[in-house]
Design brief:
single chain, 349 residues, alpha/beta, nine-stranded mixed β-sheet, four-stranded mixed β-sheet, 19% helix, 27% strand
Length: 349
């Protein structure tokens, strides 16, 4: 979408899965999706550039399916020895987070506002939650009105993309946004990309100030605690898990019970103090995040004579870093175009 805004390009999006699909390989629809800054400060460019855009959409474009909420981050006493990193190994739970200068209305919480005795400290700030069932089709609509063409296809090798342009001509540039499947796509085969399984429960229950997360939980290191309410009646998402190398698409009923119990214990207002039996379940869900130990890969390389720009490995922060990463991709496209001149410009996403 960001590239299409610049004009002068013939863009074709080729994908195995599209908005409306639900598949374990397709991460986007399963996401919460909220904004909780995760990058370390030196790598925070993507989130710093994205947050103003998401905030503007929430305020000015209601049909994008984003609304502003107050987020609460709780740091548990038991996680103090690990500097509150939790299983995600990020900066969200840092005692003095860099994002306090980015997020509006940031404040440290007094102990009187802690939900239970296990919390050592906490903070809150203005955030946003995205209803992915609305936002993803909205993104498609923004692309379509700028002339982008969408095609369904299953590619075995990245080089096959060069022949998929709707113009009938060979594409000059291929942008690889293959997510978790970057580990299986020929010509890329990045084995450092691994699935990080996330299981959620979506319920009808809502409560004020329901976007919250904790630095860990007492059950297992592979489980995490978070909740958020999606915009426009999208339900409340309760999570979750962070299980590396787990492709199981089936919800685990025992995990689901633990997720619901933790959510209700953290925020009893969800059920009016009546326990998990009072949760009205819409569905259970499982998706996999495109985890990459080295972090996101945004760079260009030539594969079989064609320039490929990679943009994958976003783990659990794809939405909240999306516009910043897209900006970097557009910059790389500009570099490639400068090398290709005077060849006619043509790009395929």
């Amino acid at each position: 979408m960001q590239l299409a805004k610049h004009g002068g390009f013939d863009i074709t999006v080729v994908a195995k899965h599209m908005p409306g699909d639900y598949d374990i390989e397709y991460t986007s629809p399963w996401a919460g999706a909220n904004v909780l800054p995760m990058s370390v400060e030196k790598g925070s460019r993507w989130e710093r550039r994205t947050w103003p855009v998401l905030k503007q959409l929430a305020k000015e474009v209601p049909d994008a399916g984003i609304h502003l909420q107050i987020a609460r981050v709780y740091r548990l006493a038991k996680d103090e020895a690990t500097d509150f990193k939790g299983p995600l190994d990020d900066s969200l739970f840092a005692a003095d987070p860099w994002y306090k200068s980015l997020m509006d209305d940031f404040r440290e919480l007094p102990s009187s506002e802690f939900p239970h005795a296990g919390v050592r400290s906490g903070c809150e700030f203005q955030s946003a939650c995205i209803n992915t069932a609305i936002y993803l089709p909205w993104l498609v609509s923004q692309c379509l009105k700028r002339g982008v063409v969408f095609k369904r296809a299953v590619l075995k090798h990245i080089s096959e993309a060069t022949g998929m342009s709707h113009t009938g001509k060979k594409a000059d540039i291929v942008i690889n946004a293959s997510g978790v499947l970057a580990s299986r796509l020929g010509g890329v085969m990045d084995t450092s990309v691994r699935p990080a399984r996330g299981q959620i429960v979506v319920v009808r229950n809502e409560a004020p100030n329901n976007m919250m997360t904790t630095s860990g939980c007492d059950d297992t290191d592979e489980e995490i605690v978070y909740s958020m309410t999606r915009a426009a009646g999208g339900g409340t998402v309760l999570g979750g898990t962070y299980q590396i190398d787990n492709w199981d698409a089936n919800p685990d009923p025992n995990i689901a019970i633990r997720i619901m119990k933790r959510a209700v214990e953290l925020h009893p207002e969800l059920t009016g103090g009546r326990g998990i039996e009072a949760l009205s379940i819409i569905r259970h869900g499982v998706g996999v995040r495109p985890y990459r130990k080295a972090g996101v890969r945004i760079e260009k390389e030539k594969i079989d004579g064609t320039w490929v720009i990679h943009n994958y490995g976003h783990a659990g922060w794809g939405y909240q870093g999306s516009y910043g990463c897209a900006e970097a991709v557009v910059d790389l496209v500009g570099e490639v175009i400068a090398e290709l001149k005077p060849v006619k410009r043509q790009s395929k996403l």
